[in-house]
Amino acid sequence: MSSIAIEPALQLEIPEVEMYCRFNSNENLSIRYDNKDFIEKLVCFADSTAPVIFSLKFSAGVPEKALTQPFTLIMSESLAQKYYGNQQAFGKTLITGNGRSYQVTGVFKDLPDNTHMKFDMLLSMESLATIVEAVRFRIMEPGAFWNVNSSNYIMLHQNADISQVLGKFPTVYDKYLKEIGDQINASFDLMATRIDKIHHTSKLAADLPVGNKAYIYVFGIVAVFILLLAAINYMNLATARATARAREVGLRKVVGTNRGQVANQCLTESILLTLISFVISLGIMQLLLPLFNEISGKQLVFSFTENPGIFLSMLGIAVLTGILAGKYPAVILSSFQPAVVLKGKLRTGSKGSWLREGLVTFQLMIAVVMITGTIVIYNQINFMQNADVGFDKENVMVIEVQDKVFRRKTETFENELLLNPNILNVSSLFGIPGGRYGIQVMRVEKEDKMQEYALNLMPCDYDFAELLKLEFKSGRNFGREMGSDMLEAVIINETAAKTLGWGDDTLEKKSIIILNLMEVGAE
């Protein structure tokens, strides 16, 4: 996440940058079509390079030209089907809730569920530039560099190194940002992550939702433990059955079978049993995967054709498990002496007994570790569900209002709700309590001067604190009788006070909000 002005400056000043693409989210876009109102969530303003950099596959339109003009858009095939059915979407017009008309200049194939950047519709960045021109906003003005509101990507020339770009950024900073940075006592550092590394390695707070590699390690270790338990069980059972198969082995050796052939037979049996189990487990996985996705809210997909590498890896693990599980029983069975076996004098040695006891002990250790881990995870989840979050969340329901016309009548709607005796209080706010609404750059008073901080801001009405029963350590709630509260008052939590270094001397401090671009240009 960075400013909308950084990328053009980087391409202009740094030769390693071949092209760039910026995305500005415009979620909850209102669309008026066929006398019906629709709300689209996965919508962004994007540069004309987006289809090229992200290799979008077009079924209609030219990727390189689709987003070059103002008030043009491209949409996914599923969205085109939603609005136009079997008709051709290319060339049609969509009207947004504020009356602006956009022409469909491209239709791209639906993005996979596991893609990094998710969108169903892209509006041309030239549209945004045209819209904000009305308020005299210039993309390359110095002030624009300090509005952090855009997800930005750059494509480097072949064999270029991102470290070269980052190393040259101080030159860009000195030219475009330093003057204002010195005035507000702030600085700007540029960081970058390879797009294929973002999901598991990005540690940037404002980045898109990412995965947690620790989960992969945890579940991988659990899977290894389960395989070890299964392999040890097989070894113990196969060894216990060795006495019953002793005569079979003795007779085979009498007729000429050597020790290696007996061992290979045992290994083959073990591998075949593992492969049969592997095939059955794949079938069960395919049957239960939709249910798992529904319960977990994920969109996991497994396809033999799309993921041949994963399938081959799983097959290799299955064969390896079969070899490890069958190796010890194969050694035991192949070591039987025909004369001893046929005379009925077979005895199990103390060495084999010691090994089996060791395997059972190892099983118990694994079981104890897994049970302990399960208890710890359960306690952690229970803590997250029941910990004090700083407000009363019981019996509170959130209603998401998407229609912008309806938002203007919120007060009337609230009054109607309060007529219901079962509803004790109603409040309006942007976002969900405890969630992240929007990072705003503010100038705050500290050590007798104004310094810049990025804080999570959530606009709300007068009744918000009362509805959630917020506990005030000092100060007061917003008051309707205080005319200045609407534009000049803020409420912060203890963490914010500590972060800003205010401590107990928080009251009467002042902050100035720096508006970001999307508050001006959003549809």
Low-confidence stretches: 513-523
Task: Report the mean per-residue pLDDT as an integer.
Answer: 79
- Main beta sheet strand tally, sense and closure: 11 strands, mixed
Beta strand count: 14
Name the beta content range.
Answer: 15-25%
Count of discrete alpha- or pi-helical segments spanning 4 or more residues: 19
Distance between the termini: 20 Å
Number of domains: 3
What is the molecular shape?
A: extended
Classify the secondary structure makeup into a structural class.
Answer: alpha+beta
Helix content: 40-55%
How are the SSEs placed, and which strands pair?
Blueprint: E1 2-3, H1 6-13, E2 17-25, E3 29-33, E4 36-40, E5 43-46, H2 50-53, E6 58-60, E7 72-76, H3 77-84, E8 93-96, E9 101-108, E10 121-124, H4 125-133, E11 148-156, H5 162-176, H6 178-183, H7 198-201, H8 213-240, H9 242-254, H10 259-296, H11 308-334, H12 338-342, H13 350-386, H14 404-407, H15 410-418, E12 438-446, E13 449-457, H16 464-467, H17 485-488, H18 494-499, E14 511-513, H19 518-521
